[in-house]
Amino acid sequence: MAFVLAVTGSAVGLGNIWKFPYIAGQNGGGAFVLVYLLCVFLVGMPVMMSEILIGRRGRRNPVATMALLGQEEGSSSNWKWLGGLGVLAGILILSYYSVVAGWTVAYIVKSASGVFAGATPERVSAQFGEFVGNWRLVGLSHTVFMALTIFVVARGVERGLEQAVRFMVPALLVLMFILLGYSISSGHFGEGLAFMFTPDFDRLTWDSVLAALGQAFFTLSIGMGAIMAYGAYLPEETSITGASGTVVIVDTVIAMLAGLVIFPLVFANGLDPADGPGLVFDTLPLAFGQMAGGAFFATIFFVLLSFAAWTSAIGLMEPAVAWLVEQKFRTRAQAALMVGILIWALGMGSVLSFNVLAEFKFYKGTIFDNVDHITSNIMLPLGGVAIAVFAGWIMCRNSTAEELGGAGRLYKIWRLLVRFVAPVGILFVFLKAVGLLPELS
Ligand code: PFF
Predict the structure, then answer these.
(1) What is the DSSP track for 323-336?
(2) Is the distance from CB of 7 to CB of 314 less than 8 angstroms?
(3) Integer Cα distance of 12 and 74 in angstroms
């Protein structure tokens, strides 16, 4: 139970409520959502199971675990570089994640002050635009969020975290259902539903498929060793399949609910689904502004979302800190402070991407866009290929069967997915998206 709570805390976060709707909106809805779901179940879940079983077998930080198992399974300790890639991915992701988490913290204050009451779409968008345009304010919220994260990681995680998740996830679900009720009554629910679930494959590009794959990794916190780090604490007798299944379902339900809340609001207010990273902040305040007790619900909602972001942020920072501590290089508190300050400084690049440096664009856009793209769409899927190959090809059958509770039918399906479907699928999508594979027709 404690394990499921910790992993759920890491998985459920901004990825579900902020990122999923805006990416789905930018990629045209229906077909993207379908591909996303396929990625979650056919690639995400088996990779998550692999990370947990590797973590439990190694029982160390991801870098040391990969080195140890690499040798134990007759390969090489160079697999430690995979752990290293995860440490780096965690640092980079948290640098911009903390900025968006800072937005949600700032929105707690805005909500409580009642500014959304009776607001029009124009006013809500203008409020968001003004807010992210003010780099000092955004920088301050990012700083507050990082300070809170460093504080918990420095003291060592566990107990408080489980309690927080135990309360937060159900509370978040209740609020999502209240919002769903509102969006059903908005009169445009059917349109939102159709946008999300009517696939139009003509609009699907390989870039969108890669975005769906990257989002599956991001939302499940896989491909970077974070789940491996939690797996190290899992008791022998716990079922890895059961635990992963629970986390994947809870995570998917929350993302789908977020979409079902947001898209009807988008259509009811004449907004653009491809609005971008501001989508949630341009839509939800409209609902809160019109419902009875809106300021109250809005405040609670942004508190819960900040909490959800916080429990994820801890998972993002943990691999780097655990690794430094095991190097006997620093105490836990010193390691947390060092890693935290580095992340904070990198994060300033994302803070400025919405104001001072908004016009400074290269490759995929602003600094924020690039850090997001490189981590979610490149580093996590490649980490996923390596994890799948390790669990499917390097580890012997006996080792993995032992961890997964015998070589039954489910085991065979899992093995098929990690040996063939995940690595081949990910590499194929990857090469297609960068244009390295020719068209067949
Ligand atoms: N899964 C988190 C979310 O959906 O918000 C983000 C995340 C947390 C990614 C922890 C990776 C990680 F290690």
Answers:
(1) HHHHTTSS-HHHHH
(2) no
(3) 36
CA dihedral of residues 241, 247, 253, 259 (deg, nearest 10):
-120
pLDDT at 440: 59
Distance between CA atoms of 352 and 146, rounded to whole angstroms? 16
The residue type at 106: A
Strand, coil or helix: 276: coil
CA geometry: angle 426, 394, 225, nearest 5 deg: 60
**Which amino acid makes up residue 40?**
V
Q: What is the pLDDT of residues 384-413, one digit of tens each?
A: 999 999 999 999 999 999 999 988 999 999
Neighbouring CB atoms inside 10 A of 33's CB total: 22
- Looking up tokens 């870098």 gives 63
pTM given for the model: 0.96
Structure tokens at 87: 């440490």
Query: Which among 250, 226, 233 has a CA at the least distance from the CA of 158?
Result: 233
**φ/ψ bin of 249: left (φ > 0), alpha (ψ from -120 to 50), beta (otherwise):** alpha
Label residues 219-241 b or e (16+ Cβ within 10 Å = b): bbbbbbbbbbbbbbebeeeeebb
Tell me how far apart the alpha carbons of residues 281 and 127 are, in angstroms, rounded to a whole number: 9
Which residues line the pocket of ligand 1, CB cutoff 6 A?
10-11, 13-16, 90, 93, 218-219, 221, 224, 226, 312, 315-316
Q: Distance between CA atoms of 210 and 213, rounded to whole angstroms? A: 5
* pLDDT, tens only, 410-434: 999 999 999 999 999 999 999 988 8
Predicted confidence (pLDDT) per residue in 184-195, tens digit: 998 899 999 999
Mutate which of 91, 100, 103, 218 for ligand 1? The one with the most ligand atoms within 8 Å of its CB, which is 218
Q: How far is the CA of 315 from the centre of ligand 1 (A)?
A: 7
Q: How far apart are CA 365 and CA 131, in angstroms?
A: 20
> Among the residues of 186-293, which ranges form H helices?
189-197, 206-220, 226-231, 240-268, 279-290
Residue 362: phi and psi, rounded to 5, are -150, 160
Pocket test for ligand 1, best of 61, 88, 149, 219 (most atoms within 8 A of CB): 219
